[in-house]
TrEMBL record:
Residues 141-278 form the Tetrahydrofolate dehydrogenase/cyclohydrolase NAD(P)-binding domain. Residues 8-122 form the Tetrahydrofolate dehydrogenase/cyclohydrolase catalytic domain. Its EC number is 1.5.1.5, 3.5.4.9. Belongs to the tetrahydrofolate dehydrogenase/cyclohydrolase family. This is Bifunctional protein FolD. Homodimer. NADP(+) binds at G167, R168, S169. Pathway: One-carbon metabolism; tetrahydrofolate interconversion. GO terms for biological process: L-histidine biosynthetic process; methionine biosynthetic process; purine nucleotide biosynthetic process; tetrahydrofolate interconversion. It comes from the Bacteria. It comes from Paenibacillus silvestris. Gene3D superfamilies: Leucine Dehydrogenase, chain A, domain 1 (3.40.50.10860), NAD(P)-binding Rossmann-like Domain (3.40.50.720).
């Protein structure tokens, strides 16, 4: 590790976010309101089951209620939408999270669209995405918002910087590209058809890896001193970045685990509390 490389500690950022929620949850409890997150898990993917369990446990530690809806692998789109509609109609539920990915037979987009905008704490609906694009989303997607929270926490300047985002998924690469653009970065979004990927990544002052391929980003793809944010969550807790090689070149880098992941969960809790407070104000 070069002496100057800052390890961007996601647990520290997550703890700060969760700490800020304690008094807000307590204030609502005095009024008899308990923020409530409903997670919906479809199928048998063990990693997804782990992430949903982690979200439920994080809620519990903060005094947020969580409802876990688990549907079988063979669930149809219609059955999933019916389950989501039930949660939309349940006044005790403030936020709904449909765990991605869902089994192949399901139209994931249609299921995401079924989530009521007031409860879309994961920023997955078209309206939520569009609000994020214009820079006024109440609930931007949690992993992109976590990446921005890490940059903010460590006071890393974004304005005027060249941010290279590798990946264009609807809940990660695209929204984080827009969020960086809204912070006045010059943004290049790369994807599977991008030519000369390494040359483009080398232009990045900030590099966001959101590609879903373990240890994909190589150290010699980076400009010296680049800020590297690894949003990968591959099996075995392996990120999208070759960490050992990249930390030698980067000026700051998120590890996996303990980087973007814990901040994603803290952000989800924050959005759930925001949604509950909004209902309480009505
Ligand atoms: N609807 C959504 N689905 C998915 C999202 C999402 O934001 N919304 N993101 C990913 C996975 N994910 C949350 O669901 C997620 C992955 C990893 C972590 C995390 O904290 N990982 C830990 C290590 C895990 C462990 O100890 O086993 C870490 O990085 O320190 C949080 C959230 C896919 N689906």
């Amino acid at each position: 590790m070069s002496a100057e490389t800052v390890i961007l500690d996601g647990n520290r950022v997550a703890d700060a976010i969760k700490e800020s929620l304690l008094s807000r949850v307590a204030n609502m409890a005095e009024k008899g309101i308990v923020p409530c997150l409903a997670t919906v898990l479809v199928g048998d993917d063990p990693a997804s089951a782990t992430y949903v369990r982690m979200k439920g446990n994080a809620c519990k530690r903060l005094g947020i209620q969580s409802i876990r809806v688990v549907l079988p692998e063979h669930t149809t789109t219609e059955e999933l939408i019916a389950a989501i509609n039930k949660l939309n109609d349940d006044e005790s539920v403030h936020g709904i999270l449909l765990q991605h990915p869902v089994p192949k037979q399901i139209d994931e987009r249609a299921a995401f669209e079924a989530i009521s905008i007031d409860k879309d704490v994961d920023g997955v609906t078209t309206l939520g995405f569009a609000q994020n694009a214009f820079g006024f989303a109440e609930f931007p997607s949690c992993t992109p918002a976590a990446i921005i929270a890490i940059l903010d926490y460590y006071q890393i300047p974004v304005e005027g910087k060249h941010a290279v985002v590798i990946g264009r998924s609807p809940i990660l690469g695209k929204p984080v590209s827009l969020m960086l653009l809204n912070k006045n970065a010059t943004v290049t979004t790369c994807h599977s058809k991008t030519a000369n990927l390494a040359d483009i990544v080398r232009l990045g002052d900030i590099v966001v890896a959101a590609v879903g391929k373990p240890q994909f980003v190589q150290g010699d793809w980076l400009k010296s001193g680049a800020i590297v944010l690894d949003a990968g969550y591959n099996p075995g807790n392996i990120g999208d970045v070759d960490y050992e090689a990249c930390e030698k070149v980067a000026s700051a880098i998120t590890p996996v685990p303990a980087g973007v992941g814990p901040v994603t969960i803290a952000t989800l809790l924050k959005h759930t509390v925001d949604a509950a407070e909004k209902v309480a104000r009505k």
